[in-house]
Amino acid sequence: MLSHPLTGVIPPLVTPLLDADELDVDGLEKLIEHVLAGGVHGLFLLGTTGEGPSLSFRLQQEVIQESTRIIRRRVPVMVGISHSSFAESLRLAEHAASCNADAVVLAPPYYFPAGQPELLEYLEDLTPRLPLPMFLYNMPSMTKIHIEVDTLRRAADIPGIGGFKDSSGNMVRFHEFLQVMRDRPDFSILMGPEELLAEAVIFGGHGGVSGGANLFPRLFVDLYEAARDLNMPRVKQLQEHLFNVRKLYGLGKYTSTFIKGVKCALNLKGICSDVMAEPFKAFRQPEREKVAQVLSAVER
Question: Does this model's pTM top 0.85?
């Protein structure tokens, strides 16, 4: 089911939890049906928004198994396998393949920062062993490693690597990624930060992995389509709405506020629980009231 290149809006799915190591299966089903009803083009499990690195290996496996069961191959499924251990990334990829996922997503190992030549060697060692196509994930705020432009160009020649998600937020660098890959129409370049989705698509990006699409999938699908069609008045209108939605992400004090805001809003919408993976806790009442106010204003 994986198109080449993969295009569109691929939400990094929130992981609904009942406690730190128990999946909210009912909430997961409601969430998946909610985003699929919004017309998204794929789903990304166990990413940053899904708190993937904070979940036990057993729970990661359950998330993959239950999600693929619910999705029933209606859209492509991508699974995050980022880990500080080579062997654990490979084990998770093998489980994803056994559950009929379509691709895996890999950020650089995030404990010992690798140099660019070391990162390429790592990819050359791991990729041939993977049972599924792999997308590279540039997430320097979490991994301490910026995937450089020439590293992407060389990595794209490794058989099995079919795309790239850039969450650096550096639009100049994103244009450089597009430029260096201009002769690879089969290779997907996807934008991470959702406020840059429209600009990325207008200039040749293939879509976005937008966390806010957990809440408002149709908004992001409409924005992607307007940008793809170069419908600038529509892009401007939808972009203004998107920035109102983003107010939900800044209602706490710490870096975790984005995921807390999304989970809290989903809980207020009756979709799933807002339990966070450790070491974080869900918003308490003062922040919940702020989320409810913003949500009410956005949904008018």
Answer: yes
Structural domain contains residue 269: no
Contact indicator for 219, 9 with CB cutoff of 8 Å: no
CA 251 to chain CA centroid, nearest Å:
21
Q: What are the distances in angstroms from CA 2 to CA 5, 170, 185?
A: 8, 27, 15
* Residue 73 located in a structural domain: yes
d(CA 20, CA 42): 26
DSSP helix, strand, coil percent of the chain (3-state; round to 5):
50, 10, 40
Does 288 reside within a domain? no
The pLDDT tens digits of the residues spanning 18-45 come to: 998 999 999 999 999 999 999 999 999 9
CA distance to 4, 9, 89, 269, per residue, from 184 (Å): 10, 20, 27, 41
The domain of 27 spans 8-230
CA distance 199 to 276: 32
Question: For residue 92, what is the domain's CATH number?
Answer: 3.20.20.70
Nearest to 257 by CA among 274, 272, 271: 274
What are the angstrom distances between the C-alpha of 72 and each of 17, 29, 43, 75, 227? Answer: 21, 12, 12, 8, 29
Contact criterion met (CB below 8 Å) for 43 and 77: yes
Q: Scan for tokens 């293939």, then name that residue.
A: 206
Q: What is the distance between the alpha carbons of residues 124 and 12, in angstroms, rounded to a whole number?
A: 26
Contacts of 41 (CB under 8 A, 6+ apart): 6, 7, 8, 9, 10, 75, 76, 207, 221
The CA-atom distances, in angstroms, between 262 and each of 2, 198, 294 are 27, 21, 12
| Total domains present in the chain | 1
- Please report whether residue 59 resides in a domain: yes
Burial class (CB in 10 A: 0-12, 13-18, 19+), 247: middle
Task: List the one residue out of 81, 146, 154, 157 whose CA is nearest residue 114.
Answer: 146
Residue holding tokens 């904070």?
Answer: 54
pLDDT digits (tens, 9 = 90+) for 151-169: 999 999 999 999 999 999 9
